[in-house]
Amino acid sequence: MLNEPSSLAPRRARPRWQVLAVAAVAAASLHGWLLAPGVDLPAPADASRAVALQVREVPAPVPAATADSLPAEAQRPGKPAAPAKAKRVDVPPLPVDVAIQAQQPVESPEADIDAGLILQVAAPAATVSSSVTATAPAAASAATQGDAVPVYRTVLPPAFRLRYELHRGFFSGTGELSWKPSADHYEARLEGSLAGMNLLTQVSAGLLDAHGLAPVRYTDTRSRRATAAANFQRDKGKITYSGPQVEFPLVPGAQDRVSWMVQIGAILNAQPQLAAPEGKIVLFVSGAAGDADVWVFRYVGTENLRTDAGTWRTVKFTREPRKAYDRSVEVWLAPVRSHLPVRARFTANAGGDAFELLLRDIQLP
What we know:
Blueprint: H1 16-35, H2 47-53, H3 96-103, H4 115-122, H5 130-141, E1 160-168, E2 171-181, E3 185-194, E4 197-209, E5 212-222, E6 228-233, E7 238-241, E8 248-249, E9 255-256, H6 259-270, E10 280-286, E11 292-307, E12 310-319, E13 327-334, E14 340-348, E15 355-363
Helix pairs in contact: 4-5
């Protein structure tokens, strides 16, 4: 056993110069491999060790979306762009995609709106706050192609109360539209009920001017909902709402969801020639939930309607929906009764039930 080599015996150490030579050759080989062009580094198993191997600086590729923002010389083929000098800024710059979007014009689905309409709608915004100016394009973009928002001559009807049969889907009830004008003020009210339960109460109150109805406040109360309101602030030139923090410029001749039912008849009383082929009436109409849009009523034709109050010769106008969740509106007006609405039907574009009013009787003073 003494002659057998022991496994614990120390190995013979190599000379120091051999160790240094081998290390130098290995380092040189590794250094050359890392710097060789076209070589992809394998993904390391340990991210902390991978950092130590990244000894080559690789410039990040320029995203295609930012090509327009590069200097002209950087866009020439075959000539690399010079690196931009770093600048100290106090506020971090916007992300690249946000900056690019800010420089590009936003395309609207109604980009070919009539320029005259934009001027007429946006003009009042100059007299109100900057927040109103920011929302003015929303009112302008609400217009249909080639349609301006004019003001009309009007002849107002006398006070009246119209009672209706109300239909909504398979349900039936009663409705009432009342109109109470005075020297320079008015109130219009639309109410509806189904199965003895109040469905809605909409009230428009305001002034009377050379162009007919000029709403000041409009309220909308629905069953199981709080009352919502639209305020036509004529001294500030804007429409505001009780709920949403939205503002629209107050367009001359603007109406609400009740006042238009009287205004459209007043316009036809003064300009009956509009009830003819190609005839139309354009109104800027606001609801109470921060919504406002241009409603274009187009003449459809004449129709005889049989109601509990008799048979009426009517002129029919329709307002077609223009976007998702919009509504179509049909209204039949009786020329012999100051163009009062004998029938009206509202249908949601999203496939909801139609809401319809059909005259039952008329009460005049």
